[in-house]
């Protein structure tokens, strides 16, 4: 690896998409837990 090589960082769009997917995954997990609780209470 040379000093002139670009740093191994993903572009901003990719980083934003990864953050959005991570938030969506957390939201989906919480929604599933909430659905399980609602189904369990019935």
TrEMBL record:
Transmembrane segments: 20-41
Top-level taxon of the source organism: Bacteria
InterPro entries named in the record: MmpB-like
Keyword vocabulary terms for this entry: Membrane, Transmembrane, Transmembrane helix
Cross-referenced Pfam families: MmpB (PF26627)
Protein's name in the database: Uncharacterized protein
Organism of this sequence: Streptomyces lucensis JCM 4490
């Amino acid at each position: 690896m040379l000093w002139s090589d670009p740093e191994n960082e993903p572009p901003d769009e990719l980083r934003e998409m990864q953050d959005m997917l991570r938030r969506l995954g957390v939201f989906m997990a919480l929604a599933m837990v909430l659905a399980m609780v609602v189904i369990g209470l019935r």
